[in-house]
Amino acid sequence: MTEFERRHVGFNKPYLTGKETEYILESVKSRKISGDGVFTKKCHDFFEKRFGFNKVLLTTSCTDALEMAAILINTSQGDEIIAPAYTFVSSVNAFVLRGAKIVFCDSEEKSPNIDAKKIEELITPNTKAIVVVHYAGMAVDMDTIMELAQKHNIYVIEDAAHSIDSYYKGRPLGSIGHLAAFSFHETKNVISGEGGNACNQ
Q1: Do residues 155 and 148 touch, judged by C-beta distance below 8 A?
Q2: CB 92 within 8 A of CB 133
């Protein structure tokens, strides 16, 4: 054990399963490490084929993917976005930066996820979208959410930062709403150190 290891408690230890370091070297040798290289295309293909996403785009972070979602639904001044009261700031900041008002919805009694039964009372003519966060890979009640979205003609954006390979009634999280964002931050279940992923349904 090194002196550094003795003095520091590891919080986010990279989990390596096999050839990761070989792939890093291969990427560096390709002289294309800033994006849109061979591994970018492999990642796009993996997400599209494995989870059935229509279109995938790697971004520099999940925060950027959420900002892209806010832009794609044309978020503007006066819009209202319903979001969970328990989440990371990026889930809502993307919309605040475009002038939207965040309407927080309480968590379920037995999970940190948004309580789908409390959302409809928060919907107004200004509601543009519902942002759901599948916290720690636990699925939000997406049947209720999508019924509300269809009834009120509003968008659903899945913040699936924690949810690669997590499912709701057999469907991959991130494949149910209109747009989704994943994370490869070192605190998530699949990591690259930094990085995010935007998906379009």
Answers
A1: no
A2: no
Q: Is 56 helix (H, G, I), strand (E, B) or coil?
A: strand
User: Is 72 strand, coil or helix?
Assistant: helix
| Burial tier of 106 (Cβ tally within 10 Å: 0-12, 13-18, 19+) | middle
pLDDT at residue number 120: 97
At 75, the amino acid letter reads T
Strand, coil or helix: 152:
helix
145 burial class (0-12, 13-18, 19+ CB within 10 angstroms)?
Answer: buried
Question: By percentage, how much of the chain surpasses pLDDT 70?
Answer: 85
Q: What is the CATH number of domain 50-200?
A: 3.40.640.10
CB 29 within 8 A of CB 22: no
Residue pointed to by tokens 């309580």: 115
Q: Identify the segments of the chain with pLDDT beneath 70.
A: 1, 4-15, 185-201
Q: How many residues are there in the chain?
A: 201
Q: Which of 101, 117, 169, 188 is catalytic?
A: 188
Q: How do the domains of the chain map onto residue ranges?
A: 50-200
For the entire predicted model, the pTM comes to 0.85
Q: H/E element holding 37?
A: none
State the residue for tokens 């709403």: 177
- The 10s digit of each residue's pLDDT in 26-50 is 888 888 777 778 888 888 898 899 8
29 is annotated as an active-site residue:
no
